[in-house]
Amino acid sequence: MKQTRITIKDIAKEFGVAVSTVSRALHNSNEVSDELKKNICDYAAAHHYQPNMLATSLRNCRVERTKTIGVIIPKFVHYFFSCVLSGIETTASHLGYSIMVAQSDETYENEKEIMQRFNAARVCGVIVSLAKDTKQYDHFQELLNIKVPIVFYDRICTELKTSRVVVDDYAGAFEAVNYMIKTGCRRVAFLGSVMTLEIAKNRCNGYKDALLKNHIKIDDRLILQCDKQGDAHLLLPKLLLDKDRPDALFAINDDIAFEALQVCRELNLDVPKDVSICGFSNSTITKVCNPQLTSVEQRGYDVGVEAAKILINNAENKDEDIKIKNKIIETTLVVRGSTLPMPLNDNDGN
Amino acid sequence: MKQTRITIKDIAKEFGVAVSTVSRALHNSNEVSDELKKNICDYAAAHHYQPNMLATSLRNCRVERTKTIGVIIPKFVHYFFSCVLSGIETTASHLGYSIMVAQSDETYENEKEIMQRFNAARVCGVIVSLAKDTKQYDHFQELLNIKVPIVFYDRICTELKTSRVVVDDYAGAFEAVNYMIKTGCRRVAFLGSVMTLEIAKNRCNGYKDALLKNHIKIDDRLILQCDKQGDAHLLLPKLLLDKDRPDALFAINDDIAFEALQVCRELNLDVPKDVSICGFSNSTITKVCNPQLTSVEQRGYDVGVEAAKILINNAENKDEDIKIKNKIIETTLVVRGSTLPMPLNDNDGN
DNA sequence: TAAACGTATGAAAACGATTGCGTAGAGGAA
DNA sequence: TTCCTCTACGCAATCGTTTTCATACGTTTA
Q1: Could you give the C-alpha distances from B341 to B46, B273, B291, B292, B337, in angstroms and in order?
Q2: Which residues touch strand C (CB under 7 A)?
Q3: Which residues 38-77 of chain B have a CB under 7 Å from nucleic chain D?
Q4: Nucleotide closest to residue A31 (CA–C1')
Q5: Gap between the terminal Cα atoms of chain A
Q6: Radius of gyration from C-alpha coordinates of chain B
Q7: Beta partners for residue B125, in sequence order
Q8: Cβ density class B318-345: b for 16+ within 10 Å, e for less
Q9: Which residue of B13, B104, B165, B225 pairs with B111 in a disulfide if CB–CB is 3.0 to 4.6 A?
């Protein structure tokens, strides 16, 4: 006796009516007598009837689709991305959408395979942040061709015509570096990451422009690339033991900033007196190290909310051409103990 | 000219054959001539044909279903849960499954609504960790009744007959407390959480048994309940300023342990000389505070892997009755600076 | 009274893929 | 020639739901 889910047919049989009548009754159509309607609805509720979304979506293939959106995240175990996912999920959930999620693990192959799975599952749209590895975009174009909307967040793709939600990386970096200069730092180093990513370029540009605005020359020796954990330990000591050592470090993310902090500690450099350090993301790590890290608040949750809103909006107006939206989430500098305080006599002309 | 997805029908029309022939060709049946087969496959590949999973799943309603599993997580922005999700996703992905994920935000209402959505989407099974709020289980029973397998992880439900994957909370707590006692601590306090959760009870029992085994009386005044952030700040100072103050704190999670560490710092108590502190989870926070936190490694990733394996196994053998499996993931104590070193002359009889 | 209309329901097609069964035609065996 | 077999395909049902069209019966209107 295999108990299974109740369908509209079972209900029809129960009442000796046609399935169409049951369907209408459940949709509260006024073409069904009130009595029958009530009986059918009561029966359905009592038996926990849940319409089969597969069937509904299949029938409305070119209309409503699955009310499911696909989300690609480079890595789950990551503060910023967790926040974004949380924002997406909360927003989608409120609007009646489910989310299907997968991690690319920073490789193009995974990303491609995920896009295929999402396509097979007939998601209404995809929200994605690029893997570090990704240099070609055919797997996205394929979905765009068949009018599936895509929204990029954080690590966007500038080659494709899609909506994007980004943090104002440039302004965030500019503000942070400008702040450190105002507190008296003169040689600010940049601890960056892979330069193919748009975010890396933007943060680097913000860094450079802040220097220029303050009439400080850009010194390429002060621009490092720390791709993976441990890189800072390899590269920084040489720089910090130099007689011309930097008096400030601006890191592209909090993890690298923290590693830099450790290196300073190991080299007996005082933070912030000898070296100021500023990170990016304002993740939990900033509040628990000693001294606490100054960092740029990235508002991941808001990024997720905006991305979901834009995507769902696109998905629900499929008839029209997809409207491209670029949303920029403003950052805020959160000052803590790893940077110097602003001098009192500072009449900032800006 | 609305470009849309290519279906099996379009291919059939293209070649002037029946859809059944196309289907067989794509499945490499030998009932189709090699030439036609090759042409059809080439054409399908060139046009990025992806079989519509909705249709396939609908047809195989009582057999294969959707190759999608639902995952409920109390909160996304949480180290342990991120690890679990990562483990689930990686495993599921390798086995060709997609995951649909939602956060309960610790409320029963959300959990219930999510289960309904998962049911409508016809997921093959659900992996869930209970919300703190949940005290009734009808929403789970409903799915179990129609033979949808459920696997609980971490915060399990003992009232339902389902598979479970848990961390060995008892042993983890026992080992941690036992360790602190061996290093010389005599008054160990427990900073717990809501006691309705199974994990809270187990960790508390491990704590108590470690005391008893070492012939230390349990003192109820040393058992505190810190549910939300800030509670430790409210409750701990009183305890720590007492002349009879504890010389060790065992916290139910790392966040509370860190808060305790802060309180100690504020009260000018040295950690670990005056007070040893041990947390639970071995999250990133443990490595970045000062001193670094001793903690119980919870192996979230492995929890996720096991949960996914068990669930998929259940889902794929639907004909048989669901086999209930209880998997216990062993913990390890990771000793760091927030606890005393083990004395050298210790001949641990255990 | 006959025509028109309204109400409540049924029948059937459609969405896309799979699969059991049927069959036309080619070729071989008796 | 007749019968059989094999190859290579087509037909149609199926999954659950929605929606268009059709229709039976009762009521109103001209």
Answers
A1: 65, 10, 13, 13, 8
A2: A 16-21, 24, 30-33, 36, 55, 58-59, 61-62; B 5, 7-9, 19-20, 23-24, 26-27, 49, 51-52, 55-56, 58-60
A3: 55, 58-59, 61-62
A4: C8
A5: 77
A6: 27
A7: B69
A8: beeebeebebebebebbbbbbbbeeeee
A9: B104
Amino acid at A24: R
pLDDT band (50, 70, 90) for residue B349 = very low
For all residues of chain A together, what is the average pLDDT? 91
Distance CA B91, CA B153 (A): 15
Are A4 and B82 within 8 A, CB to CB? no
- Please state, in angstroms and rounded to a whole number, the distance separating the CA atoms of residues B45 and B39: 10
Query: pLDDT tens digits, residue range B247-274?
Result: 999 999 999 999 999 999 999 999 999 9
Residue A343 DSSP class: P
Please report which residue ranges of chain B form alpha helices under DSSP H: 8-15, 19-26, 34-46, 53-59, 79-94, 108-120, 138-145, 169-182, 198-213, 231-241, 254-266, 285-288, 300-316
Both structure tokens of A204:
């680097």
Tokens of A63: 């209309």
CA-to-C1' span, A313 to D15 (A): 31
What's the number of CA atoms in the CB half-sphere (13 Å) around residue B329?
A: 20
CA(A39)–C1'(C14) in Å?
A: 28
Residue listed under structure tokens 């690319």: A104
**Residue A60 pLDDT class (50, 70, 90 cuts):** confident
B31 CB below 7 A from strand D atoms: yes
As ranges, strand D nucleotides with an atom below 7 A of a protein CB are 7-12, 14-20
